[in-house]
Predict the 3D structure of the following.
Amino acid sequence: MIRKFGSDRRGNYALMMVLAMVPLMGGLAIGVDYTEMVRQRQNALNALDAAGIATAQQIVAGASDTEAKTYAKNFFEANLAHIDPANTTLTVTLPNNNTGGGTLKLCGTLTYVPYFQPAARILLGGTPGAANIAFDTCSEVRLKNTLEVSLVLDNSGSMTETGKGSNKVRFDLLKSAAKQLVDQLAGEAQQMRQISNPVQFSLVPFAASVNVGAGNASAAWMDTTGISPIHHENFDWTTMSSSYSSTKYAEKTNGVWYAKGTGWDATQKDKPLTRFSIYNQMQRVVTESSTNTTCTGSGRNKVCTTTTTPATYGSVAAWGGCVESRPYPYNIQDTPATTGNPATLFVPMFAPDETDNTDTSSRLPANNNWGADGSSGTDAERQRYMPKYFTVGTSVTPAYGMNAGPNTSCSTTPITPLTDVSTTAGANSVKAAIDAMNASGATNVPEGMAWGWRTLSSGAPFTDGRPETERGNDKVLIVLTDGANTYYTPTSVTAQTYSGTNWASGGNDLAGAKAIYSALGYVKPYNNTYSYGRMFLGTSSSISKTDYSNANYTKAMNEHFATLCDNAKTAGVIVMTIALDLDSKNTAEKAQMDALKACSSDSRFSKDPTDPSKPMKLFWNSTGATLSNDFKAIGNELSNLRIVS
């Protein structure tokens, strides 16, 4: 019977079913837990994303830190559906505690409690021995990018002309439009209380040069010891050798000129001789010395007393704050200034006193004759003769201010560094600086744009910009000009008022400088380290190095401008350009319009109206009548930059 029972197969199906139920039920348990786990995880992620967007809106509306965190938690838990909030945790990182511009980060942890056996927990990804399964997930919402905007605005003399289609001068129209832009962006910035300095503006007025502020005379990035290769290019310190004076002379040691002898005052003796030295040491006679005799009594009782009042002296001029362009390639770069590379240092402008002589053929005086020559040599020797600056009272009679004497071609107000306009005080400060601008001088767009870039930089000279690698921050250059780049030959324009029949007919160039002194110095300086003047450094073979004409100077400056634009855009700067009242029928102005358009960046948001397949160039061909609306369009573009979808 036992043998018969063993061979009986009639109950095998039930036995096999019992044995098969173990993996079948395990698979079912895993399937149920897996499906539920995925559902809960997705619900938690959806709740996290929704809470992020909703909380971001609360922050923009002005919620405090505490209010934002509470709102995020409540919104997250309310959208968990059937998930028990007790099985979740939420961590909120507010924008002001997060790297980047305005990034709100929400991280949630979901603890899933399986319905079935520990084996299922292991198969579903849990840790052996753990009761539950935990999942972490994060969601980020960038509210708005932070903005750093540099207004690089033309302050040349032509800005005083009436704007096309308007009854106002261009300068007034520009000031109004620029302040309107500041107000527009300041209004948005005030809504972002969670982020420090959400929108910052700098202002760079430019004409023939740029003013970095006289308060920076001792800054580390200024050439305070005269080691730059351009610092002494217009000076001949050998004219102040010990053979000239045994008590007050110049001596060169290791490439630096020093003040030697007992005739120097304590502030200068044995220290480097620089352009700052000339500003500081020059003195003029304020009142002449006088002798006065008074007598009392009469006859043999008459007593007379003679009193001598010494002369009084005053300063001839203080440095106005303008600097020269660095030699190529540093003039069109944001390379930090270091003493290890003297060519990167910034040199204060100092317009040399030019010859006293008048051109015998045209009877024109020099454009910048502001002191006595003190020399009877050639006109070039007279111009570079150094004792004239240190002969007290005999060289200069008047005091000189901005855009006169040694500060000739320094006509603009100083740079305003990046300033937070989310505060009323900050916005008002930038707008006051815009109002303070004045129009005078030539047009050097590359110099203005280069300094605009430097104000946005995180490195010196101006260090207010956020790090270039920081997420969520845009650096923007807005460059406006109403004319072509200009650098003038001495005979083509009048740099100073003088008497005579040929006034306003230009000035002579008896010293052979080939240009009025400005940010690029003379085109043919006396002591030139390079093959030719800085005007032509770095230019292509298509630019003649011996064509000393205004037109050729413009071409050279245009090449510098084009390379500068490429450098700035390669560094991640967004460039917006505006041509104001330029005439496409004028060859030079048409070239400037084309250069400005080529310089501009592509829009991230707007399409070219003439070809929707291409992005719009951030270039505006404005007139006096359209300038206000064009600045509104620029404001809208900047607003788009701040919105992160």
